[in-house]
Amino acid sequence: MRNDRRLSRMLHVLIHMARHDGPMTSEAIARMLGTNPVLIRRTMAGLRDAGYVSSEKGHGGGWAITADLNAVTLLDVHRAVGGPRLFAIGIEHPEPGCQVAIVVNEALGDALQEAERLLVTRLGSISLAALVQSFDDRCDSVSS
């Protein structure tokens, strides 16, 4: 099964956009990610619908960040880009009365719920501003 890279790719784009003066075109973003501009527009539409970016058509147009980066979390971006379920592991739906399946499903279900709670909490605690600051700090330490 392939990993879904929408979240990491859009976070990558948003950091570039935060450091870029003016809008970025779908074509420029697509070149940066090695993908198709149509795919970029489709994915960025979720961010636009959530109010995190805006888009302008025509000469000088493109995508621009419109949200306060302190107010947008990684979880917000995950949800806006239509990210998949956080875990692909699932439980079996057995015939009623199978005690083995019931025990297995209870154990897996509890573990998955706990892991998802932890991941949602962590993603919800990291702002885009924190990512941009971390990037800036790395750049400063490299240039020093």
UniProtKB/TrEMBL annotation:
Gene3D superfamilies: Winged helix-like DNA-binding domain superfamily/Winged helix DNA-binding domain. Pfam families: Rrf2 (PF02082). One of its GO terms (cellular component) is cytosol. It comes from the Bacteria. InterPro entries: Tscrpt_reg_Rrf2, WH-like_DNA-bd_sf, WH_DNA-bd_sf. GO terms for molecular function: DNA-binding transcription factor activity. PANTHER family: HTH-TYPE TRANSCRIPTIONAL REGULATOR YWGB-RELATED, WINGED HELIX-TURN-HELIX TRANSCRIPTIONAL REGULATOR, RRF2 FAMILY. This is Transcriptional regulator, BadM/Rrf2 family. It comes from Amphiplicatus metriothermophilus.
